[in-house]
Amino acid sequence: MLKAISECIKEGFELEDVKVVSRGKGDILNKYSDYKKIPVLNQYFLLIKGDISYKKQHLIKKSLEDILKSLQNSSHKVKKLSILEKELETILRANEIFFSGEGSLEDFFLFLKNKKYAVVENNKVILNTGIDKFSITTSLGKLKKVDEFSTSFGKGETYALKTGMYQIIVQSEKEPLDPFLKKVLKSRLLWLNKIYYEKYQYSVDELTGLFTRKKFLNDLPKFKNRSCLLINLKNFRFINEIYSPQVGDKVLQEFAILLKKKSLSENVYRIFGDKFAIVFNNEDQSINFYRNIVKFLQSGIKVFHEVLNEYVTVNVQVKFIIIKKIDSNFLERAMIAFKKTAYQEKDLIIYEDTILPQMEKELKSIEVIQKAIENDKVIPAFQKIVNLNTGSEYYEALMRIKSGRKVYLPGDFLTPAKETGLYPKLSNIMFDKVVEAIKNTGYKISINIEITDILRKNFIDYTIKKIKRSGVSPDKIILELTETEDMSRMIRYAQDILQTLKREGFYISIDDFGSGYSNFSYLTKLPVDIIKIDGSLIKNLEKSRKNLLIVKSIISMSKLLGIETVAEFVNSREIYQIVENLGVDYVQGFYIDKPKFKI
């Protein structure tokens, strides 16, 4: 260019005789109507005043093109640096909000809301940084633009949808997107996708669409002093077993929709499995929601059964627990609430009114247990059991705790002892004292054990070694296995241990047979010598024909299997005569003998 200008000056041209004007500047071009217009790079005009040879025109135009290209390249580089700088600022700021805890997740996505673009080229979406394709298609095809905008990537139009405001850049065929900008947008797309995935996993439960336990824990500090309603689908395991896990999932989905719809709360969470939480402003709102939802649940939940190819109505049993005020101990209280109410029949329990007083009572019980262990106040009370055929007798050792003049029964302390890990110590103490009582009296004695005792790692070694060291014959001890729900679930793990104990010479008995968890298959799987018929069946024999028939069938079946029977809770002459006529082998109860601390 300088060379061309130099040549022009030699020919008598001045600098003002040469102009460079952009094509779009029509008003400026009009001022130089007497100048000769030479197109340059399809973007500019080279304006020359006066006559000039073709050679010199070409020389000036070529030099000008070189300079303009250099300037354009420099401009592109500056623009790229600017874009990279802005992208880096966006990513750093978003990461700062997301990871530093400075703001909430809502703040994070609000920040990114105006950072999303779609680029459309020849009616085809070529790049997208977070807008779903349906929204783009709908926007371009049916909606009117509500605004225009300009970004580093180009000019575009803003479209409004119910799901948000979307910015869409439509690239023309003549102005395709720069490859560098495509790379920048692709990088952002990968980053946004990862962040969206992390956020989705963090805050939204995939099955129900409710908020997750992680988000619940994150949100708890802002709910201080508000009320929380904990919800447990009590029979969900039953639903899975009877219908199928797929139907169970559908029940959870429909239940979640119902919770969201009826609570009108934005704070509905699935905290794990079949347990949910809803945060309300106060206790009254929690109670009102409970009353409303119970009405809807009475008709069950209707879901489609794929195998049956029809809709089925599933009955759901729900436990509601209200915690009046959320505080720093909320999580601990929530876990205790679910555990303490698992087998309670009431549908609505208020933590502060029911569970808290119960826990305070249990804390006192734990203190009593600890002192009893330290001061040797865990003692057996012995109750006589008499054989109706021979008159022979043995005793049952019943656990008691003495504290001053007060005597605590198992119902006062066993539950907190099990929950705090003190029960194995109590069990060992009782076994030691039973062995000592046998040595001193020569009587056969039964001692209550649970399936959890048998499954303890050192139980069998401790029991056998204790007996051998004491010199007491194992056939003087009856291990009385209490029938519980735990037993029904774990019995298969205990069969070998019980067989070993039986081979060593111990007698095996099942206590509370027929109490509700009873399974007659136990009698074929376990080496049972004696069954004790549950007291709830015995004590009302004179009033209940059903109880009479059940007891009669248990006695008949036991005789066929060669198993002896004990009727407990024989508290009157009338009951005594009934069980004697039914053919029971042993009787136990206040009519025979009351528990005492010495035999």
TrEMBL record:
Domain GGDEF: residue ranges: 224-354
InterPro entries: Cyclic-di-GMP_PDE-like, EAL_dom, EAL_sf, GGDEF_dom, Nucleotide_cyclase, Rev_trsase/Diguanyl_cyclase
Domain of life according to the entry: Bacteria
CDD domains reported for this sequence: EAL (cd01948)
Signal peptide range in chain numbering: none
One Pfam family linked to the record: GGDEF
An example molecular function term from Gene Ontology annotations: cyclic-guanylate-specific phosphodiesterase activity
PANTHER family linked: CYCLIC DI-GMP PHOSPHODIESTERASE PDEF, OXYGEN SENSOR PROTEIN DOSP
Stated name of the protein: Diguanylate cyclase/phosphodiesterase
